[in-house]
Amino acid sequence: MNVSVYSIPLQLDENTYLLINSRTGALDLVDEEVLRVLRNEIPPDETILDTLTERGHLTELTPYQESECIKTMYDTYVQGHPVLHQHFIVLTYECNLQCPYCYLSDIQSKRESTVIDGPHIDTIFSIIARLDESRYRIILYGGEPLLRKNRDAVKKILETGDDLGYSFLVLTNGVLLRDFVEDFQPYEVAVQTTIDGPQQIHDKRRFKKNGSGTFSEIIEGIDAALEAGLTCLLRTNIDADNLSVLPEVVQLYHEKGWLHHPKVSMHVSPVFKKPGIQYTPIVPRSTVYDTVIAQTQKSPDIMHVSFDLKGAELFEQVFEKGELGPPRFWYCDAQSGTFVFDPFGDIYVCTEHVGEEQARVGRYYPDLVWNDMYSEWRNRTIFTIPECRTCKYALFCGGGCGYEALTRFGTLCRPVCYNYEEVFSSVVPHLYRAVKKSHVDP
Ligand code: SF4
Ligand code: SF4
Predict the structure, then answer these.
(1) CATH code of the domain covering residue 112
(2) pLDDT in tens, 261-298
């Protein structure tokens, strides 16, 4: 008998562990004695042995055979789950803010200030009408999609996309959100914007080109959007400069009545390092997550905030519904259903590196032409990365960021692990406690 490659013990408290097996979907609360059996430190009690075998933590399969089972799971999953396409439309690379950590700032300085025009929009829709049966979602993206000069393009995208049956997500800095709410009202629109702290901190991080802050306008925009019935996703980008800010953000949401608002969700996202961008206050993801988790002791409302950690959402589902969500066979939507169309006629799949030649996968205007990278991106899974094939975290992690693999190693077939094990073992117990608490204390 072997201990399954895919069994992961996570400590919840002194003598309670969550024992997860991502291959079998088993999720068990166990004590130290069970772990000692798995580690071969004590002779197995018959009942424990039977249960561990039945749940798949102990198995007759070799690691190779287990990985073949995962491959079969993948084939079945792909057949049963048509791809949900998300179409990002970059209305312009231009932005009205100058946030110091912006990952697109280098592109903005290279790309001329052009707003996507009618013929490009028409071509995008004629392509997606042919390629995409899912009719899932159009994402208005930039630069900043909500500039006044983009209004005609925004309206055209909403009208045409709605006719085809799409819903919309607008990723905006929120400064002009209030002015656009009326345009959004007839359609199914969700808006994501960013609040990086209380006013004095937020305004030092997210400011206009003339240096003035944006906090008040964003708050007004969110109020207007909620009043119009739109869904709002509120994000807080965290790095060393605002590491301790979340309790105040959550307090603000509480005062605004957003914390339990059915149309509002909140998440934190560590600021990431992009090659070529000089921004130093970046801290490791594990530091961000550990700090946020520690803050929940004093500020329990932080439990309502989600983590931007790939795999964490699978556990939210586990703890809410008692079932393991679909495994993560790839890391992000760049490897499945995302298309990014820019105003210059280029197509990308990685949303965070639009405008960069390395991330370009083809052109759509005047005609649709893919380059060699397109199929490499779409085929990248945990099975095309040798290290991931036998990694116990593979079905949660998905192999790491493809773009980072490309820039660091020159190939998409390498893993980008970050410190997944460390982050996973602090975030998942936190989620477990958060869901448990919400059931006791609704
Ligand atoms: S990227 Fe690293 S942690 Fe993630 S699945 Fe691959 S080997 Fe495991
Ligand atoms: S490839 Fe990496 S940078 Fe690009 S969208 Fe995916 S996770 Fe983000």
Answers:
(1) 3.20.20.70
(2) 999 999 998 887 766 667 778 888 778 888 888 888 78
3-state secondary structure of 83: coil
Domain boundary among 283, 308, 333: 308
Question: Counting Cβ atoms within 10 Å, is residue 322 exposed (0-12), middle (13-18) or buried (19+)?
Answer: exposed
Q: Does residue 131 register a pLDDT over 80?
A: yes
Pick the ligand that lies closest to the CA of residue 353.
2
Q: Which of 340, 325, 406 is nearest to 373 (CA)?
A: 406
- Answer whether residue 66 shows pLDDT above 80: yes
Q: How far is the CA of 125 from the centre of ligand 2 (A)?
A: 24
207 & 269 share domain: yes
Average pLDDT, the chain: 89
Query: What pLDDT is attached to residue 378?
Result: 94
Q: Which residues contact 395 (CB under 8 A, 6 or more apart)?
A: 6, 22, 23, 70, 327, 328, 329, 382
Q: Which listed ligand is nearest to 335 at the C-alpha?
A: 2
Residue range(s) defining the domain that contains residue 25 = 1-61
Q: 6, 380, 382: which to mutate for ligand 1, most atoms within 8 A of CB?
A: 382
**Ligand 2 touching residue 309 (CB < 6 A):** no
Both 3 and 146 in a single domain?
no
Is residue 200 located within the same domain as residue 233? Answer: yes
| Cβ atoms 266, 236 nearer than 8 A | yes
Q: Is the pLDDT of residue 442 over 50?
A: no
The answer to whether residues 211 and 107 belong to one domain is yes
What is the Cα–Cα distance from 364 to 407, expressed in whole angstroms? 25
pLDDT grade for 27, boundaries at 50, 70 and 90: confident
What ligand 1 atom has the least distance to the C-alpha of 420? 3
- 422 within some domain: no
Question: Is 262 domain-assigned?
Answer: yes
Residue with tokens 């602090």: 426
Residues 150 and 270 in one domain: yes
- Give yes or no: residues 179 and 246 share one domain: yes
- The Å distance, Cα 290 to ligand 1 centre, comes to 20
Residue nearest to atom 5 of ligand 1 (CA): 394
255 and 155 in a single domain? The answer is yes
Nearest ligand to the C-alpha atom of residue 328: 1
Give the chain's domain count.
2
| 411 in a structural domain | no
> What confidence tens digit (pLDDT) does each residue in 299-317 have?
888 878 887 666 666 666 6
Using CA atoms, how far apart are residues 124 and 146, in angstroms rounded to an integer?
19
Please report whether residue 276 resides in a domain: yes
Q: Are residues 144 and 49 part of one domain?
A: no
Distance of CA 192 to the CA centre of its chain: 13
Q: Could you identify the atom of ligand 1 that is nearest to the CA of residue 387?
A: 7
